[in-house]
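Structure (tokenized):
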């Protein structure tokens, strides 16, 4: 059976992570995979997470099964974190949340759920989008179509082209949107654009599917969720995939959630029963530890406060690095877009050859698309990276 299988190329993001690990140069810089790093280049366990883990260790009494929906308390608290405590959809009982194995688990189960709703569902994704979106959704055999999102010249959202393209979508089609901190471009929709796309989706009977993996790392927890909150209020149905990997630093614990906003409580109950049955037939139930940590933090005022302050500091650090990088690159061209963009990622807008030179000659790693993880920079590495960039850009001018 196996002899006919060919070796596949490595995943572009995870493959780069491996190549970086194998590079023996001491001055190498990892701007590849999207993990937050502190000034020392580490990805520390957040203080609130450490405390919650300690409390769990002392108080946990069982490891018995918890069920396909995961922890009820976690689900409720994540719903409130995404929507804000007083959101009308919560009051109207239109919200159902299930815990998933990371944001990827949420995306894939949303795809399986969409297939149950309509086997030939079409999902519209932004060009560009996160490298794993298409495998996750296409792997569930959904039809994928693309809408233009990023103007390559200005590296900002080409909103008119996006809207014009989505006019072609048909009722029942799904539109995948990034809730904040667009991955890979960092170019986000503003409040007016969210309002306009909500109008379009409503008028055409489309279903928005929002992936929000970086809440709190763009502007703040509330503003980053503005699109999710608006759509959940105005539209009968919305799907939201969320992740605790980045904002709680729980990457390897695989902690995420899938939220279904339904037209009413009764439809929500039926939809959730279908989703839970799909979960049971895929992985049965999600892992517990990360969600238990998040639940304890969100449910304990002093831990919540500690977590929020640490998250705010991470967000401010990213914003500061954005300003410093755009300034340091100014002699080589207009990189002011880096300061305008939000979240962990921006494209540098350089060629794959220049990306390769940076990797091979300078030990600076970024994706071939020139996506960099801003949070991978530090006061030490930023000058190295900007000097190398200036040199490489000067060389090929
Ligand atoms: C990234 O985009 O680098 C992260 O979301 C990590 C991943 O799984 O790709």
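Design, position by position:
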């Amino acid at each position: 059976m196996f002899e006919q299988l060919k070796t596949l190329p490595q995943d572009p993001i995870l493959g780069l992570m491996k190549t970086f690990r194998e590079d023996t140069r001491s001055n190498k810089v990892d701007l590849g995979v999207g993990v937050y790093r502190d000034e020392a280049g580490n990805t520390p366990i957040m203080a609130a997470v450490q405390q919650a883990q300690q409390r769990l260790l002392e108080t946990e009494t069982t490891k018995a099964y918890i069920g396909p929906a995961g922890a009820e308390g976690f689900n409720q608290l994540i719903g409130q974190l995404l929507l804000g405590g007083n959101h009308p959809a919560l009051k109207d009982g239109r919200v159902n949340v299930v815990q998933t194995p990371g944001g990827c688990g949420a995306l894939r189960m949303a795809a399986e759920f969409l297939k149950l709703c309509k086997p030939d569902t079409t999902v519209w994704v932004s060009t560009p989008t996160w490298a794993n979106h298409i495998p996750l959704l296409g792997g569930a055999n959904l039809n994928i179509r693309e809408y233009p999102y990023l103007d390559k010249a200005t590296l900002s959202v080409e909103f008119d082209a996006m809207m014009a393209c989505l006019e072609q979508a048909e009722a029942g089609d799904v539109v995948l949107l990034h809730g904040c901190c667009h991955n890979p471009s960092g170019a986000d929709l503003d409040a007016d654009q969210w309002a306009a796309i909500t109008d379009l989706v409503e008028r055409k009977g489309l279903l928005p599917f929002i992936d929000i993996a970086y809440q709190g790392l763009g502007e703040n927890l509330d503003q980053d969720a503005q699109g999710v909150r608006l759509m959940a209020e105005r539209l009968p149905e919305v799907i939201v995939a969320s992740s605790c990997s980045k904002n709680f630093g729980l990457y390897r614990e695989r902690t995420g959630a899938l939220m279904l906003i339904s037209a009413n409580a009764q439809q929500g109950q039926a939809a959730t029963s279908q989703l839970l049955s799909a979960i049971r037939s895929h992985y049965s139930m999600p892992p517990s530890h990360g969600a238990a940590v998040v639940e304890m933090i969100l449910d304990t005022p002093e831990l919540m406060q500690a977590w929020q302050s640490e998250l705010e500091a991470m967000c401010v650090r990213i914003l500061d690095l954005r300003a410093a990088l755009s300034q340091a690159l100014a002699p080589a061209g207009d990189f002011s877009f880096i300061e305008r963009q939000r979240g962990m990622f921006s494209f540098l807008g350089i060629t794959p050859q220049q990306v390769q030179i940076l990797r091979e000659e300078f030990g600076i790693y970024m994706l071939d698309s020139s996506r960099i993880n801003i949070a991978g920079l530090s006061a030490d590495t930023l000058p190295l990276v900007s000097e190398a960039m200036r040199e490489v850009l000067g060389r090929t001018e």
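Reviewer-requested clarification: Residues 13, 33-34, 130, 132, 183 surround (2S)-2-hydroxybutanedioic acid (CB under 6 Å). The mean pLDDT is 97.
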